[in-house]
Batch of 3 targets.
Target 1
Amino acid sequence: MAKSETPAKVAKAAKAVKSTGKINPHIKIQNIVVSSDLHANIDLFSLSKNVKEVDYEPEQFPGAIFRIKEPKAVIILFKNGKLICTGSNTEKNIRIVLERAARVISNYVIEPS
């Protein structure tokens, strides 16, 4: 139960659902997760050495973590070119983030797959 929802509000909502048989939820998109494939092998070690926004510790996790500040998002990038982008709440921002990241990552392509 969210902080703003008192037991009385919850009870009132439950009673309304029972009497009408309908649920009318308030929907708010807070996070979009996108997976993609760049179809290229990436040199994650060099990428992390030269790009301060990228953390790569292969002993702990096989993917590099690329933190984009504006618009805010995080990309987990794997050596085989597959990636997961999360943290944005609009498709427009996801596209902006992926375009910016692709420009940076393209400098670290080892070989197209």
Target 2
Amino acid sequence: MAYTSKEKKEILEEAKADIKADDNILFLDDVIAGLPISKKTFYEWWPKGSDEYNEMWRMINDNRVTVKKYIRLKLRLSGKASELLALYRMICTEDERRAINMNYMELSGKPDSEIKIGFVETDAKPASSEDDVKQ
């Protein structure tokens, strides 16, 4: 089915209205599923990097921030130690993370060191058939 530019604009406005109306829309696939077009058509009309795509993506990211704030608030208000610790881990500094994380390992190396790969001289010759290889 061929769409007119007016219909294309209406579908874009529908997509943006859906994102704005429902802060549980967290992925573009959620938007596309509710539109009368295929995923392929969506990306043909509004490819990554286009102004329309970027506007929808910004709206979805706004939804994500809203949901993250809600989750953090629920964690904070729960009073349960494990949930408070999960929240603390999200917001703590690296030093604090080291202090509370029992599995923390700091890796360091010598970036100026050199790795040398050598070859071992042998008298071995390639086998010409499987019969030449000793079992």
Target 3
Amino acid sequence: MNKHLDKYKKISDNIIKKAFVDLKGIRIIYIERKFKYFGKALNFGFFNVVMINPVLRTFSDKELKGFFAHELSHIQRHRDRGFFEKIFFIINYLFSEKFRRWEEREADKTTIKIGYGNELYAIMRKSYRISKWHEKRLKASRLSLKEIKFYTKKNK
């Protein structure tokens, strides 16, 4: 593993220890490669993959915590689904933009519920500054900065 992947794994492990006890001991593979998104969590049944764009190397630890808490929220949410729910999820995620938006917003809410609202706010704020494309895509599919603040305050 390179030094960045080591750092990402350490941050993820700390989040799992504090907030995702059910994910303790599961196999998560971290892959760093350039693609249009900052990251993506994928579940393949017996193992999970978190893909990470190298642009995250420039992000602070606080921002990275927001990123990994969000991606781990996806993994936890997927693991909580039954077999038929997973089939339903996969089909809808592939073919429905409305469903993908719902899932992203729910992962944001889960991130806030587990105590990483401020970190989620930090990464979203930074992400808006990366490019207009990222800002537009994130505003269309994720909680707004105002919503993150609201839910974080409500969660405390």
